[in-house]
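Section 3.1: Structural characterization of target chains.
Under the original work plan, the team committed to producing a structural model for every single-chain target entering the pipeline before any wet-lab resources were allocated. The record below documents one such target. The sequence was received from the expression subgroup and is listed exactly as submitted; it comprises 226 residues.
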Amino acid sequence: MDIKKFSKSEWAFQSACLIQDKINAILLEDGVCSVMLTGGRSAERVYLAWADLPAFSNMTGAHFFFGDERCVPPDNKESNFGMAMRTLFRRGVPSGCQIFRMEADDPDLLASAHRYEVALPASVDILLLGLGDDGHIASLFPGSAFLEEACRKVVAVSGPKPPYERLTITPSVIAHAKAVFVFATGPDKAHVLEKILNSEDVVSVYPARLVMHAIWLLDTQLSNKS
């Protein structure tokens, strides 16, 4: 587990720099880089800072995907896609980049999940995730039967709070991602992480256990270093 802590004022900028540096390295080596975006307030902060980095406008070959989406229209305030367009892509999509939207507003969620599954690369280069107060990641919540899903990459789920209906990636996508960054800001999220670190509970209790190998981006010191 790689924990990186930045000051509250520098957290968004430093996190954005780390992600951009990783993308630059992959593009330099492979010419293409798949980046899976997340939602949430912490992600908003990173995206606003990221869009201001000079390198962001020069990322030919970057393909952007989403790890989960609420079943709302793309212009709805609850849409992860809409949030990304208002923050990360507020000046437009950089030349040579592509965005693959999860069409969670399609009434046929099973068909939409299948289409997105087909569009995904065999393994995502960079996966961004936020940490929920209950230890969830993407839209994989505690107790979900899909925490044991080994075949499908994208599924329709119901969350514990509105908008309830969502699409989400499964543990299969997470397990094959080459680099994972987890946003965990504020003392509440640090406390959640500490509970996960000091617990013997399994993934069904704390889905974030799926990404204990990730780079965790914090702005609050953990009180228990063990």
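The CA atoms of residues 6 and 14 lie 7 Å apart.
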